[in-house]
Every structure is written in structure tokens, then in C-alpha cells.
Amino acid sequence: MSQHSKILLIYTGGTIGMMNDPKTGRLKTFDFENLYKHIPELKQFKYSIDVDSIKNPIDSSEMNVSNWADIASTIFDNYNNYDGFVILHGTDTMAFTASALSFMLQGLKKPVIFTGSQLPIGKIRTDGKENLITAIEIAGLKNDKGEGLIQEVAIYFEYSLYRGNRASKVSANHFEAFDSPNFLPLAVAGVDIEFNYNNFFKTNKHKLELFTDFNTDIALLKLYPSMPISLIDDILNLQKYKAVIIEAFGSGNSFFNKSFYEKLNAFTSKNGIVIIITQCTKGLVKIGKYESSKLFIECDAINGKDCTTEAVITKTMYALGKFKRKNERIDFLSKSCVGEQTD
Length: 343
Prior knowledge:
The structure is a single chain. The chain is α/β, with parallel strands linked by helices. Helices cover 25% and strands 20% of the residues. The protein has 9 helices and 18 strands. It has an 8-stranded mixed β-sheet with strand order 4-1-5-7-8-9-12-13, with helices on both faces. Helix 2 packs across helix 3 (94-104), helix 3 packs parallel to helix 8 (309-322) and helix 8 (309-322) runs antiparallel to helix 9. The protein starts with 5 loop residues before the first strand and ends in a 10-residue tail after the last helix. The mean pLDDT is 92.
């Protein structure tokens, strides 16, 4: 186990931060300033753990780009002072925030580990205590060069460590709340923590870069049989949206409708960007495999391959904010940047 690691624990809100008030029986916010008092097991790590919090901790359903920027900026500003970072976050939008930070903080050479819980940390059967302890342990581990063992944004939940931009919440009521269907876990915790070293992401950037000016002018369109074309017309509107992400059937298939086809072509020919991902949990988009994906080829849609919805949304927000030219945006969105898709 690594010794003398210094960890910054950042609390943003969520179920993990709640405890029962013994007087009232109601849930109240956990006092993370007294972390060792509540979780004395952490003393065994011999880590130095500091605690920070966003100004107004919130339910993760309220998370937005501004909150993501605050978290990313906190990490950036404290980057040289700590060996690793653990973010306590509500589960509902954790995969969105983890994905966003993977793009906001490019050049990471230290771990940023998200965790949370399905039950408040003050409940007897809580999953929060183990999630927090192991997340902190992993955040403090170093390789034989003295660098962080994990050098990317990850999610630790219920004995598994996932790449943050490859994970999605899959259950509202099971402790196994997250999964990474198209990418093996970075680690699985049992008696020992078994790491899949070949899956680790290593940046080729020389220093950490912070970019938080995301552009949210995007729409998400999930195809379904007999959907009204008027709905599609409204979304494929450059006055409202710069990019449209389409959750297509199977490996990137769609029904054919002449009006839909014409609207797609008009949108992409006037600097609009269309990205195709699949509604399926597993597998990837293969535009052109079937005749029913032909219209996406003809309108120059981008193949989102096996990107999660969370990853492609935040990646597109980054691309629209970072690049002004359409060709630059397309180039960025067409390839893996921080391990978010299989090239």
C-alpha cells in the first residue's frame, strides 16, 4: 500500500452524505470535517485526507455545467498539492459528471475517483462506507515510479472501478448501480484489489489542461417506431441546436422517411453536426452495415461507435465550446480523446 499519500475529498451532495439525526430520526447532512470520527478505519491508510465541499451541496439531479466547472476548477487549483482526488456525488448523474470532467481535465496524471451510495452513510446497511474507504485507498495508490496508479477519471462503486466516461447508472435500487458494458472494469475489489493494468488510460499531454467553457446547444433524439416527423423537424433546427445526438436502433439503423432524410441533409449541410449512437446497452454503431443506416452515411453523420450517452453528450458540449470550425469539431468527435470510445 502506498504511504504518505495526500488526498482531497470533495463533497458535492447526494445520498452518501446523509445521516440519521438520533434526536429527530430525520436525515441530515453528514459532517465530513469529522471524517475520522465517523469512519475510523481511514486512519489505517496513513493517508493525509483533507475535505472540501462545493458551496451549496445539491442533489445530483440538479447538476449542471456550472457545477462541473466548479468541481474541475477545484481539482485544477489543488492539483499540485494532492496525490489523488475523491469526489462524493449523487448517483443519478454521476456518470455525466465523471464524463464531463474527463474532457475538462485533459492531461491528468493523478486519480480522480467518483463514488457515492444507494443508502445514506448513516444507515446500518449502507454501501457508502465501503465505497468511500476503497475509493480513498485507490486514490492514494502509486506505481513504481511514484506516480498515481490511476491517471484518469473513474467511478468506484460496489467493488468495481470503472472508467468514468465508459460507465452508466443501470439500477435505481441495487447496490450494483453502475456498469461499463463495453469496457472492462479498471479494477475489481475482493480480498485483494485486482487491477486490469492494460485497460488504464495514459495521457500523451505534458501538463494538465483545464477547459470548462462547454456549449450546451445540443439535442438528444431517441428514435422509436411511428414517431412524429414534426418532432424531428423541431429538433433539426440550427437556430436552436448546433448538434444533434441520435440514439438509433441496433448498430445504427433508422426508419426511412423522405422528410427526415431531407431535414438531416439540410442540417448537416449548414454546419450542423449529427452523431449516431445506439440504444443498445452493449455493442457499437456500424453505419453502413445495413441498408437502414444508409441515410446517415449520405448526410455525413458521425459514428459514435460505443460511446455512452453520457460521454457523447459531454464530449459534444466540449467540442462545441472548444472549436469554432466544423471540421475541427468533426475531427475531435470522430476519434477517442480520453478513452471514451473504441477506435
